Amino acid sequence: MEKYNGIKLEYNINDNPNFLKSSLLGFQNILTAFSGIIAVPLSIAAISGTNVEETALMVSAALLASGICSFIQTKGIGFGKYKIGIGLPTIMGTDFGFVPPANAVINTMGGGLAGYFGATIMGAFLEFILSFFIKPLLKFFPDIVTSTVITLIGITMMPVAFDWVGGGATAENFGDPLYIAIATFTFLLIIFINHYGRGFITTASVFIAMIVAYIICIPLNLVDFSKIIEAPWIALPQILPFGITFDIKFLMPFIAGYLVTIIETVGVMKTLGSVCEVELSDSDIANGVRADAVGSMISPLFGSGAAQSFSQNVGLIPLTKCASRKVALFSSAILILMSFCPKFAMLVSIMPTPILGGAGILMFGTIIAAGIQSLSRTRFTTKNIMIIASSIGVGIGITIRPDIVSGLPTIISSLFSSGISGGTIVAVLLNILLIDKKY
């Protein structure tokens, strides 16, 4: 396969960095994904009105589930058509797309957390069944659609990065010049290390820059260590800590969410194959979707939500030139250990969000670059231009103004609830409906 953007990977899929390097690079993955992993359980906790202890339990459960699911997706379990996991370096977590259906089940339908976890498992079985039909579904994802979706993934994630730059979307002093300065420092330091560094230094550029920025933030009073002091050293996971209720009516809001997950996962898996310089078969993509489904069955048992592959960590691969499967497996192990040690997890969770923002701009930008490179190899026919323009236009529009679809029927509004899913649906439909002109 052609090198991604002409960049030579320092560590390929089967390379085995030593223990120290794998640990540092694995932790780099976690720094990138951590806010995404804990954001959804915090949102679910707010929706359900849990107390401090229950909220902490949900965060620890999310870390444990993320570690287990990331291991399954990265390692790949089983064989043939029954294999689960794509076998490429992946970090998993719960997607924000499941927050609206969770709110519907917990509050509107009165199912509470037990109903939410039951609906998550039932929906996961639906996704698992559909994973066996990915091959015919992939006929609707030719290169023009896939390339557009890859570009769209990066574009629609960029507002998240700038929310981080400003201190977090809900920050009272959002956009404080100090926040922007920290994000800019992190951003430039990553570029400098990545461009001028050599070997492992380049590979660990994001980790090094984020740690340096973290240390700088301490004397600026942007790091609150009191939360670490309050957190316990050890906390063991619990099985079904909030109970579970299976009711078919609770499944309804989750159907659209899982359909969107399949669409987004196909795009993420395609991007993952590109940045890892691995040719993926239809079966490989199906294995990746199947791992999402199995992960979503396992996660609620510990008190966490549906699992999905994180696109931000896909963007980390070309940026750090590290695609080692071993590193991702180390990330999985560290996440599991962190779930047992709330103090350590808290040390990462109190990292100022502008640091993530500076790194996020580059990570999501590399995904956009992957899409542009892929698009450059397609023919710019009238049909293809219409697909690109319409998909990216709709995707950006929904990302900027997600409330535009709130008045539509529930199923349609759920399908178009994110820029990635909305833009992907438009690209697929136009590819089917438009016929290339013959001149």
UniProtKB/TrEMBL annotation:
<keyword id="KW-0813">Transport</keyword>
<dbReference type="Pfam" id="PF00860">
    <property type="entry name" value="Xan_ur_permease"/>
</dbReference>
<keyword id="KW-0812">Transmembrane</keyword>
<feature type="transmembrane region" description="Helical">
    <location>
        <begin position="114"/>
        <end position="133"/>
    </location>
</feature>
<feature type="transmembrane region" description="Helical">
    <location>
        <begin position="30"/>
        <end position="49"/>
    </location>
</feature>
<feature type="transmembrane region" description="Helical">
    <location>
        <begin position="174"/>
        <end position="193"/>
    </location>
</feature>
<feature type="transmembrane region" description="Helical">
    <location>
        <begin position="242"/>
        <end position="263"/>
    </location>
</feature>
<keyword id="KW-0472">Membrane</keyword>
<protein>
    <submittedName>
        <fullName>Purine permease</fullName>
    </submittedName>
</protein>
<keyword id="KW-1133">Transmembrane helix</keyword>
<feature type="transmembrane region" description="Helical">
    <location>
        <begin position="200"/>
        <end position="222"/>
    </location>
</feature>
<feature type="transmembrane region" description="Helical">
    <location>
        <begin position="84"/>
        <end position="102"/>
    </location>
</feature>
<feature type="transmembrane region" description="Helical">
    <location>
        <begin position="412"/>
        <end position="435"/>
    </location>
</feature>
<feature type="transmembrane region" description="Helical">
    <location>
        <begin position="384"/>
        <end position="400"/>
    </location>
</feature>
<dbReference type="InterPro" id="IPR006043">
    <property type="entry name" value="NCS2"/>
</dbReference>
<feature type="transmembrane region" description="Helical">
    <location>
        <begin position="354"/>
        <end position="372"/>
    </location>
</feature>
<dbReference type="InterPro" id="IPR006042">
    <property type="entry name" value="Xan_ur_permease"/>
</dbReference>
<feature type="transmembrane region" description="Helical">
    <location>
        <begin position="140"/>
        <end position="162"/>
    </location>
</feature>
<feature type="transmembrane region" description="Helical">
    <location>
        <begin position="55"/>
        <end position="72"/>
    </location>
</feature>
<comment type="similarity">
    <text>Belongs to the nucleobase:cation symporter-2 (NCS2) (TC 2.A.40) family.</text>
</comment>
<feature type="transmembrane region" description="Helical">
    <location>
        <begin position="327"/>
        <end position="348"/>
    </location>
</feature>
